[in-house]
Amino acid sequence: MTPLDWVAVVFLAGGAFFLVVSTVGLLRLPDFFCRAHAVGKSETLGSFLLLVGLALHHGFVLESGKLLLVTLFIAATNPTGIHALTRAALRAGEDIWVQPKDRPREPKDKAKASSRATRGGSP
Questions:
Q1: Where are the domains of the chain?
Q2: Nearest by Cα to 114 from 106, 61, 47
């Protein structure tokens, strides 16, 4: 194997890794926005690395140029598409996930204050 083949193998392995990370993020994350973030970032990088690895493996031929053009197309459209989807979901009223420990809590004295207010007492 030539040194260029070894570089191609590194790119292919990196691309496969990021595509697997994208799949795991899609399956494991809690809501639409987290999933879209995982897919938008890691799938773009994974496909970029995979296609560049394939272009390096083929050498400097016409097919490599086509693969690089596909890479540029994915790099331009994938983040734009994810942004459009998440913005549409936000405008449609999709709730953003918040960790349970970060959710605002009702004050403990709220029940006492509401009972005082109904009896006419001061809060």
A1: 3-97
A2: 106
